[in-house]
Amino acid sequence: MSTSTDLIIAQDHGALVPATDAAVEHAGEHNHPGPRQYVMIAVILVVITGIEVGMSYLDGHMNSTALIAMLLGAAAVKFVLVVAWFMHLKTDSKILRRFFIMGFFGATLLFFIIMLVLHGMQNSYNLPTR
Amino acid sequence: MTAVAEEAPALGAGHDGGGHDGAGHDGSDHGHTTNTGVSNTKLAIWAFLSSECLFFGSFIASYLLYRGRDTNFQKAGLIKTAFKPQELFNIPFTSATSFILLMSSLTMVLALAALQRGDERRFRIWIASTALFGLTFISGQVFEFTEFYQKGLRLSSGTFGSTFFVMTGLHGAHVTVGIFWLLSLYQRSLQGKLGPEKAEAVEVAGLYWHFVDIVWILIFTVVYLVPYHK
What we know:
The complex is a heterodimer.
Chain A: E1 7-10, E2 15-18, H1 21-28, H2 35-56, H3 64-86, H4 94-124
Antiparallel strand pairs in A: 1-2
Chain B: E1 2-5, H1 40-66, H2 70-75, H3 85-88, H4 91-117, H5 120-150, H6 159-190, H7 199-225
Helix pairs in contact in B: 1-6, 1-7, 4-5, 4-7, 5-6, 6-7
């Protein structure tokens, strides 16, 4: 939250004007990671992908539920890394983060609604189950 | 706290009397800054990506719902053949194409960083690499689809065929749109119309490209890696 002591320098006017939350967030947009950090993130992503692929060959050698949980966990870590670093949500305006989180939770909600509706339809039409 | 900015976003939208075409005061490609401090262009792409979450979410949900059920549909006489995904998939091949798409995200951010530094030559190298990686991924998908088709899998083969082809096909269509978008940026750069002041145009294309990548991260795990019931 801005206070009365918060200032932002507007270079085009050479004058000091009060900073708003939005202005401070906008300044954060120029705080993107550098190439070295991007390469490090990419290396982490490649390592996780390698582990994921390796884990997929463990099917039959370990508990299926644990394997699925580990695979989905690895995918979630990769997802968050790309969104936070490559898509700059870590440093960009909070409003953009809210936009994306809203869409993501909407998709999760839709996912469960579809599962529920189609599951209900399946029973109604007496389709075979697994 | 003191912050320094290149412009005064505190002025917000509407202070210039309106009638803007979306360009910034300095003629840059920064979409008209709103009173949120974020340009309209960036807000628009995030709103679009937010809606795309719902779009792909519904396809992934449908795929998971019908995952592994074709055997039962076959027993019930609803379909002729029940294809077993684990016998169709070539995991090393798809892992390689997934790796290529992942690397295209790296070259995309390197392209953006190069343009922001004003290094247009490196920008063109990285953006062309991104498009090339995307094209390789699509070629891999076309090869995979052709192989599956030759083995008899069709859109109408059953729930696996329809949900798999629709979901991965639509993802491939998104990648194809992204490739054209990247090539148009390359072309603009060659014409000298894409300098550091227009980096936001590249950032927006990059957001779309990374989104396509994260969708594939999910599809790759859910469709290819998560084991099927034997």
